[in-house]
Write a structure and sequence with these properties.
The complex is a heterodimer of chains A (about 600) and B (about 80). Chain A has about 600 residues and is an alpha/beta fold. In chain A, about 60% of the residues lie in helices and about 10% in strands. In chain A, the strands form three sheets. Chain A has a six-stranded mixed beta sheet, sandwiched between helices. Chain A has a two-stranded antiparallel ribbon with strand order 6-8. In chain A, strands 9-10 form a two-stranded antiparallel sheet. Chain B has a six-stranded antiparallel beta sheet. The two termini of chain B are about 15 Å apart. The chains are: A alpha/beta (about 600), B mainly beta (about 80).
Chain lengths: ~600, ~80
Amino acid sequence: MMRIALVGNPNSGKTALFNQLTGSRQKVANYPGVTVEKKSGLLRVAGDQYEILDLPGAYSFDTQSPDELVTRDVCLGLVEGEKRPDLIVCVVDSTNLRLHLRFALEVRALGIPMVLALNMADSAKRRGITINSEALSEGLGVPIVETVAVRREGARSLTDFIQSGMFQEPRKAEDIDFHAEAKRLISEAVYVPSKTATLDDTLDRVFLHPVAGLGILTLTMFFMFQAVFSWAAPFMDLVDSGVGQLGQFVEVMLPSGPLRDLLVEGLIGGVGSVIIFLPQILFLFLFILILEESGYLPRAAFLLDRFMVGAGLSGRSFIPLLSSFACAIPGIMATRTIQDRRDRITTILVAPLMTCSARLPVYALLIAAFIPDRAVLGMFNLQGLTLFGLYSAGIVSALLVASVMKKMRRSNEVQTLMLELPAYRMPNPRDIVIGLIERAKIFLARIGKVILAITVILWVLSTYPSPPEGWQGTAIDYSIAGRIGHSVEWIFAPLGFNWQICVALIPGLAAREVAVSALGTVYAISASVEDPSAQLLPIVSSEWSLATGLALLAWYIFAPQCLATLAVIKKETQSWGVMLTAMVYLFGLAYLASLLVFNLFN
Amino acid sequence: MTLPVTLAGLKKGFRATIERVEHRDENDLISRRLRHLGFVPGEEVVMITHGPLGMDPVLIQIGFTRFALRREEAGRVHVTEVSSI
């Protein structure tokens, strides 16, 4: 099968084009370095099939950066067991030709058949940039197609070209100065009225202002967490009452017995307690997606760079760390755009301290149980403030941990930033909706697979063996889960965790939200007989002390509860040492913080 | 009046032409990277703004592109100041 690679500068729209060609839904956003690994898909036109490769963006093949090396190796055919691409589609941003043509010339020098895709052809026209593509194609010696990757049918010219099969090796150019050549080509074939859009200038004056810019950044983050709590509330009530009604319905419909108990206590009690957090997760992602699409994120990196250097990180760490608010796994993978290995490892080690969305259900449950829903200073909600505080606690500890690591490595080596700030873009509502749907799917799939399975297992473990006649305690005390919980209780007793929490922490290792569903199951089983599907929230707020609740919150700021994160740390760093370091220091911090909080409030 | 300065020393809102990019050692990855990003002699650059702390990093417009550079990095780019914009 014909192998076609999409190559080009960062943020030129390769992945958007890839999605168009293959019908995939790979993540696209408006900052350089969204794609850090090779992705492959199938293009089908008129009965023919082509393999399309989406590669990380690169400024040059002469590079040290792990993501750019992927691109270089694929293009040079250095990847074992893979043939060189048969065609390179070199994707360039039509509004940024000077930089992008330089790399296109470097790609041309590989001697692989190539076509130049003038992407964002629509924005170029809007800015009054006129490109004489015939003259450019002539000068470059490479065929040219115009594309608008974000629009439907925007890749039509490219598929037509691929189908025509008129691939030719570019003519060999002697050792030329790529810059000078790019400049010459532009002077011959391109007319540019003004260098950047005036709107971008104005926006940058505000958003990058030393004082106003930082203020806006803080307010944005703050607003985001407020919104997660207050805007999502009505939707959560809706889901909650739906789950409750389903529970009652099943209870009425089924005869009493183990099956009904499993469904009501295990599935509806357990899964239902997690699923109500879907609205909050979607609101969080609504903000993240808008920030990503708008081009604001690299600006935030610019504003925070110096602060982050002070803490032993880099402005480049900002985007991976922000992604970690969604989930540490893509965040850790995004560190591939950090060239300096030690900066990268520090970023990887502190990424789990960013509050990932899987922690949101745990936080939300505990906040709702222990923090009064009250207005503060007239405009802020105390629960929202607490959530903001928990997120901040994660961030502050990450900065502290990073600066300790910096002291320990005592390096004076110069680190690099060199970050491109893209043009601002109005987020496209369709992309945002698609992004949210994808996110909801991921969340529901996790519930459907991991959480469901663990909940069922946990229900079985908490129900069997059944206690003998005359057993004094509750049934769950006699069960396997109850015994396990009791047997490890002494480890966590200094933190104020009861045995039910201990039971929930163990399956929480697979996925943090499971801790909530596990508590749901454990308490549903131990709850009074007349109301087996009792809601978790009132139980937690009446059975736990405030100190226990807060200690558990503190635990979740730090605890490396998710095995998948540890696995990805190992994979990305190729080092057991780094992974073990992460595990040990995170557990240590979690234990210390909970101990401190519990004793402070007890 | 033209004064020899580096990009790190260029004032906000000033335009300049790149004279040369300094190699601090044999294998200066930063200066090599700067070249790939288009910082080559003869190019015109504008200092757009700087970060909130210690005026670091600086935001440089070159051609159609804006790059955030640390002062350390920008210090390698020697320019001739032309004018304010």
